[in-house]
Structures are given as structure tokens and as C-alpha cells.
Amino acid sequence: MNKVLIKQMLTIMKQVSIFCLSIVCAGLLTIGCNNTTTNTPTKSASSFNLDSLKEIIQQKNNAFMKAHVEKDTAYLNNSYTKEGKVFAPNTDVVTGRSAIAALNLEWVNYGITEAVEKTTAFYGTEEYLVDEGTYYMVFGEENIIDKGKYINIWKKEDGEWKLCSNIWNTSLPATASN
Question: Are 164 and 80 in contact (CB under 8 A)?
Fold first, then answer.
């Protein structure tokens, strides 16, 4: 009789063990399948607003053009990233703030009296913004007029949007040199 009793007790113990193991597995699955993550910060969808950035860039463009008229080379130079590039007409690419500073000094000495940029297209990402448009300038004692098109590529550096690439060219026909 002892053998029968021992056999029944073993059967009951197996069933209890299987039941306990099932509860433990179910608990682990529930914990493991929990989708809530507290360690990973997520960016809100509203943190990148292209319309508000367009307004900021237009203000920067206006200040940039005003700095040309006022010969504010410090503002012009600091408008570029440290490794900024200028693709000016009829010259090689100018790279880096110190080289751009020399170019800006040359440009303000042309005596710009009026400078206006108008954005015609604006797009970008959280890393880069692209501003396409047209410009109009009056400079020199003869009031020479230039108008053309530009593309500015902006990049955030030290928490501020700055020009990383600046290209422009005239829309006026080339003149014959003597």
C-alpha cells in the first residue's frame, strides 16, 4: 500500500510542479512582452516645425543682407559654420571661416547700398535646411545692379542655424571684357 500512496503523491507533486512552472512562465512572458520602455527618450513629432524654421531663416537672411549694407563683417563671418563653404561666381570654392572672412571684407568694400533676398523654396530636415531664392543688389558709386538666384544650405552648429554652403550667381547676361 505504501507504493500506491507514494505513486499518488508523486503524481500530485508533478501536477503541482507543472502548475507552478506554468504560472512562472506566464509571469515571465507578461513581463517580457511589456511594450513600455522608460529608458529611451523619444522626440515629439512637433519638435521639428518647418514653418517656424522658415521664419527664423528668413530673419537670418534679412540680417545677413543688412550686414552687407552696414559692412558688419563680424556678423557675416559668424553666419557661417566653422567649415562653411562659399561658391561665389567666377572664383574657386572658399572654405572655412577665416577664408570666408577675407571674402566678406572684399564684398563689403564694393559699397553695397541695397541688398534683398526672397525665398522661393524652403525644405529640410532636423539636420539641414535648404533655402532657395532670388536676390537683388545695388552697389558701387555707379549704382550697379545685380540680380540673380541663390541656394543656402543651413546646418545647426552650437545650437544655432548657420550657413554651411552658400552659392549664388547672377541672372544678368555676361558682359564682354575689354
Answer: yes
Give a yes or no: residue 31 inside a domain: no
**Total structural domains in the chain?**
1
Full residue range of the structural domain in which residue 157 is found: 51-170
Each residue's pLDDT expressed in tens, for the chain with a length of 178 residues:
566 555 555 566 555 455 544 554 444 444 555 554 444 445 545 588 999 999 999 999 999 999 999 999 999 999 999 999 999 998 999 999 999 999 999 988 888 999 999 999 999 999 999 999 999 999 888 888 999 999 999 999 999 999 999 999 999 988 766 5
Cα separation, 115 vs 64, in Å, equals 9
* Other C-beta atoms lying within 10 Å of the C-beta of residue 112: 20
* Inside any domain, residue 123: yes
The answer to whether residue 160 sits within a structural domain is yes
Give the pTM: 0.70
